[in-house]
Write a structure and sequence with these properties.
Elements: H1 2-28, E1 31-35, E2 38-41, E3 46-54, E4 64-68, E5 72-73, E6 83-87, E7 93-101, E8 111-117, E9 126-128, E10 132-136, E11 140-142, E12 145-147, E13 155-159, E14 162-164, E15 169-172, E16 177-185, E17 191-199, E18 207-211, E19 214-218, E20 222-224, E21 226-230, E22 236-237, E23 242-246, E24 249-252, E25 255-258, E26 263-271, E27 277-285, E28 290-295, E29 299-300, E30 305-313, E31 319-320, E32 325-329, E33 332-335, E34 338-341, E35 346-354, E36 360-367, E37 373-377, E38 380-383, E39 388-390, E40 392-396, E41 402-403, E42 410-414, E43 418-420, E44 425-428, E45 434-441, E46 447-454
Parallel strand pairs: 2-8, 10-17, 19-27, 29-36, 38-46
Antiparallel strand pairs: 1-3, 3-6, 4-7, 5-6, 7-8, 9-12, 11-15, 13-16, 14-15, 16-17, 18-21, 20-25, 21-22, 23-26, 24-25, 26-27, 28-30, 30-31, 30-34, 32-35, 33-34, 35-36, 37-40, 39-44, 40-41, 42-45, 43-44, 45-46
Length: about 450
């Protein structure tokens, strides 16, 4: 207890002594003057300092102690001379310098100075990471603006030909051309600009297609294939890097070669550059071993229409559906599954070819015209013995249509009034002053006659 009281007494005595010494120093006007005592300086600036002990004889030559809250001194502390150089720190702010001397150690006197380090001068420089660039319409690019470190300086962006946000993200507009992007310092006193060229993008493939769009073929048949690429406007683009795949057969040098198993399969083409693809359906039908024509009738009249059909059969003689038919006809024409007979009687042919297998079959069609009426011309003549006249026959069928060449007409003369040949030439030889009759008869039963008078 006694030791603790003794320690407290010593500390109190020291405080009293310090106060007495400070009061004594103040009474004698003892101090340390630091010159300059204050100033504004730039980062890294060197400041020549002088410390002088005032009011106490014999202070010169004593050790001087230098201390600063920032920066550094050229001379290490303590020094024997009252001069030192303080080097300002790089960071702006207020810094305190304290100086003490052995000469005033008993008085606890401190000399002080304060210096303010200014912020470094800034020209508000800035620059983009590029001087100019090209971009497609609708394209995006982030621009980096390298600027001064001054926290209080703000920059904004402005552009033509597109849009740009506060982070420098530029998106090109739809119109090609040459435009400008600007960075503007908030006060408007500083700005920089770069050039941007917006170009139309090259044509891009948006759709691919295969022709033909659907295939029906026979086993082993070879079908030519084509692939096409189209841009957004629908315009066909040239070229293309095509990759073909197929099921049920194979693609060989631009053609699909059907396999031997009937069924429904697929052909796919892919454009390697854009990755787009297109697929069509392939139907392989059974092989055709024979074909036939079925007609409603094989005999008809001129101008008549007859239904005609074609059928294909497999090796098991089972009728196959469909068929790719090519029709030809003589004596008339084929149209929509019907034979339209012409006007000339006769025996003609109807042929059909199945394009897939190449088989052809032919049937005969007979155009007939029955004579229903005949007209002998002239109807009456007057001749002298030995004179001649030619009779002609006009024939009509049961629809009152003329029969162009009514063959098989037989002529005869009643009563021996002359002689008539098969071509209708008549020569008078009967007695004068009498009437005779010439008859014409067709094998179909039609008959007509004409009168002949032999004059004197």
């Amino acid at each position: 207890m006694r030791r603790r009281l003794t320690a407290l007494g010593v500390a109190a005595a020291a405080l009293v002594a310090t106060g007495i010494l400070a009061a004594e120093a103040a009474a004698q006007d003892v101090r340390i003057e630091v010159r300059p005592a204050s100033a504004e300086v730039d980062p890294g600036q060197r400041v020549e300092l002088t410390a002088e002990v005032v009011g106490l004889a014999g202070g010169a030559g004593k050790a001087i102690y230098w201390k600063a809250s920032g920066g550094s001194f050229a001379e290490l502390s303590p020094t024997r001379f009252p001069r030192n150089t303080w080097i300002a720190p790089a960071h702006p702010g207020a810094y305190d310098i304290e100086v003490t001397s052995d000469a005033l150690a008993r008085f606890h006197v401190v000399g002080r100075a304060r210096f303010v380090v200014r912020a470094p001068a800034c020209r508000h420089d800035a620059r983009f990471d590029v001087q100019s660039f090209r971009i497609e319409t609708g394209g995006h690019r982030r621009l980096v603006l390298t600027r001064c470190a001054c926290a209080h300086v703000r920059w904004s962006f402005r552009c033509t030909g597109g849009t740009i946000d506060a982070d420098g993200n530029f998106r090109a507009g739809p119109a090609p051309g040459t435009y400008t992007i600007e960075a503007i310092e908030a006060s408007g006193a500083h700005r920089i600009a770069i050039e941007v060229v917006i170009v139309a993008p090259p044509p891009r493939i948006v759709r691919v297609a295969i022709e033909p769009a659907r295939i029906q073929c026979r086993a082993g048949e070879r079908i030519a294939l084509s692939a096409f690429a189209y841009e957004h406007s629908g315009r066909q683009m040239p070229g293309g890097d095509w990759e073909w795949t197929a099921t049920g057969g194979r693609v060989d040098r631009g053609a699909y070669v059907a396999g031997g198993v009937p069924g429904t399969y697929q052909i796919t083409v892919r454009e390697r550059g854009c990755g787009l693809s297109s697929t069509i359906e392939v139907v392989i039908v059974p092989s055709i071993s024979r074909i036939e024509i079925q007609a409603a009738r094989t005999e008809c009249r001129p101008g008549e229409r007859i239904a005609v059909s074609a059928f294909a059969y497999d090796p098991a003689n089972q009728r196959l559906p469909g068929g790719d038919w090519e029709w030809t006809a003589t004596g008339g024409r084929m149209d929509g599954g019907f034979y339209h007979a012409g006007d000339a009687p006769g025996t003609y042919r109807i042929s059909v070819r199945e394009r897939g297998c190449g088989l052809t079959v032919t049937v005969e069609i007979v155009i007939v015209q029955h004579v229903y009426l005949i007209h002998l011309s002239p109807r009456a003549v007057v001749l002298r013995p030995g004179q001649s006249v030619r009779f002609t026959v006009q024939a009509l069928d049961d629809t009152n249509r003329p029969v162009p060449h009514p063959g098989g007409v037989h002529f005869r003369v009643e009563g021996g009034g002359g002689v008539i040949r098969a071509d209708g030439l008549f020569r008078a030889s009967g007695r004068a002053g009498r009437h005779y009759r010439v008859f014409a008869r067709h094998p179909d039963g039609a008959e007509d006659w004409a009168d002949v008078y032999i004059e004197r």
